[in-house]
TrEMBL record:
Single annotated GO MF: amidase activity
Cleavable signal peptide: none
Species in which this protein is naturally found: Streptomyces montanus
Protein name: Amidase
UniProt keyword annotation of Cell division present: no
Domain Amidase: 26-450
Length: 485
């Protein structure tokens, strides 16, 4: 009988390398867990059972034959992982949350190609809302993906399937994508580490850039080590990529002392045209993390990035990105009415407004970057609220959805405009046991610093030791950060 939960990514890789387990066994157990929970959690759009078993057998032959390359070249040999269904996997359709039949794609996207080169077994593709637009993972194409901590609630979105799969222990880690918080938001609402890396760190090829550069691929895992390991395995550029940051070994920062840092605690939402308010219980959890950071020796004080009217640059890029996807859709008549509305706006904003928005990025980077002359890291809420109930946003009209999204998730999207790294860390549970998180945000290419700080917090708070119940009924114990001795 398969174990209830997957071991971590690093632990699976170690056990495989030392001959304690076979890849086929890990994949069979993973498939059994997915099958047992698909009717409840609905994390996967597509499961590659036959192909994954064949890939596992090939990995076992490589492991047994002693022909394996150095660990740093094949660090995930035989380890099952999942990817979001906006990423191309050869021979499989890429529906990206949409209704209708989609043809299989000819080749892997660059991120998937690199995971395969690292030895990973691609177990399946996880659910996402239509074109990744919303912080929930529901739709007529696949139904409702549910939160392992409380199945009446969403795991968030748009990488909600990846988050649900990791949080429930179906897979040790998964790739997602983040265009306005779509890795960090579901990580926050499912008690995970979610890394949104520097733009271009993980390729979005076959797109030279995604959603006019605001969307990046990132990682979800239960531990900082696992999230960083998957990030390193997937990182790198295709020759056609627009954005090409310098190479980094982010996992080397795990366990490395970050030193005494100056941390800006930012609780004020960036300006939006619609109201947003930080819920007091979420605020209390984020402040508790700030207090832990101070207890660890860091200098923490309240300060907000000078965002200004950054939202005016986000909307053209996001809606033009939607319009581009709609033009390519094989079944446009089946798209959500809100998608069609966003595409209409994108077509209107695709000329001069888009050019102005993109030119403004350098100015915004200089203005917000000035904060990092005084501080090393920004600590902010990832969301303003805990996860909403299933259906709370899915049936709203366009304006109603925008209002609900901004009210729940006003904090994550500015870092997509800037293109800089951010890491969600668990901040605890509120209410009836609903997870919330906080973001560690840094300037360009600061993933090692953010990962080092996140790992220090993890060692202190041990959040990865807490799981949702095996029945996924939400009956969890309240998590309280330890008080100072």
């Amino acid at each position: 009988m398969a174990p209830d939960r997957a071991a971590g990514l690093a632990e699976c890789a170690r056990a495989l390398a030392e001959g304690e387990v076979s890849s086929r066994t890990l994949v069979e157990e993973t498939l059994a867990r997915i099958e047992a929970t698909q009717g409840t959690l609905n994390a996967f759009r597509l499961v590659r059972a036959e192909a994954a078993l064949a890939e596992a057998d090939a990995a076992d032959r490589e492991l047994a034959g002693g022909t394996r390359r150095a660990d740093r070249e094949r660090p995930l040999l035989g380890v099952p992982v999942a990817v979001k269904d906006d990423m191309d996997v050869a021979g499989e359709p890429t529906a990206f949350g949409c209704c209708g039949e989609f043809p299989p794609v000819a080749g892997d996207g660059e991120a998937v190609r690199r995971l395969r080169a690292a030895g990973a077994v691609i177990i399946g593709k996880t659910n996402t809302c239509e074109f990744g637009q919303w912080p929930f993972t529901e739709g007529p194409a696949f139904g409702e993906t549910r939160n392992p901590w409380h199945t009446e609630h969403t795991p968030g979105g748009s990488s909600g399937g990846s988050a649900a799969a990791v949080a429930a222990g179906l897979v040790p880690a998964a790739l997602g994508s983040d265009g306005a918080g779509s890795v960090r938001i579901p990580a926050s609402w499912t008690h995970l580490i979610g890394i949104k890396p520097q733009r271009g760190r993980i390729s979005t090829w076959p797109r030279a850039e995604s959603f006019q550069g605001i969307t990046v691929n990132g990682t979800l895992a239960r531990t900082v080590e696992d999230a960083a390991l998957l990030l390193d395995a997937a990182s790198g550029q295709h020759e056609g990529d627009v954005h090409r940051p310098p190479a980094l070994r982010v996992s080397d920062a795990v366990g490395r002392e970050p030193g005494r840092l100056r941390i800006a605690l930012s609780l004020k939402p960036p300006f939006t045209a619609l109201p947003a308010r930080l819920r007091p219980d979420v605020r209390a959890r984020v402040v508790a993390l700030a207090e832990r950071l101070a207890a660890l020796g860091h200098e923490v004080e309240e300060a907000d990035p000078p965002y200004g009217a950054i939202g005016l640059t986000f909307v053209p890029r996001a809606t033009v990105g939607i319009a581009e996807r709609v033009r390519e859709a094989p079944h446009p008549q089946l798209l959500d009415r809100r998608t069609r509305g966003a595409a209409r706006l994108g077509r209107l904003l695709g000329g001069a407004p888009l050019r102005v928005a993109r030119r403004a990025e350098a100015t915004l980077q200089r203005r917000v970057g000035a904060l990092f002359e005084m501080y090393d890291v920004v600590l902010a809420p990832t969301t303003a609220t805990p996860p909403p109930r299933i259906g709370a946003l899915a049936q709203l009209n366009g304006l109603g959805t925008d209002r609900a999204m901004i009210a729940a998730c006003p904090y994550a999207w500015p870092w997509n405009v800037l293109g800089w790294p951010g890491v969600n860390v668990p901040a605890g549970l509120v209410g009836d046991g609903l997870p919330v998180g906080a973001q560690l945000l840094g300037p360009a290419n600061s993933e090692p610093l953010l990962v080092s700080l996140a790992a220090q917090l993890e060692a202190d708070l041990r959040w990865h030791e807490q799981w949702p119940t095996a029945q996924f009924n939400g009956a969890v114990q309240e998590f309280r950060p330890p008080t100072e001795a």
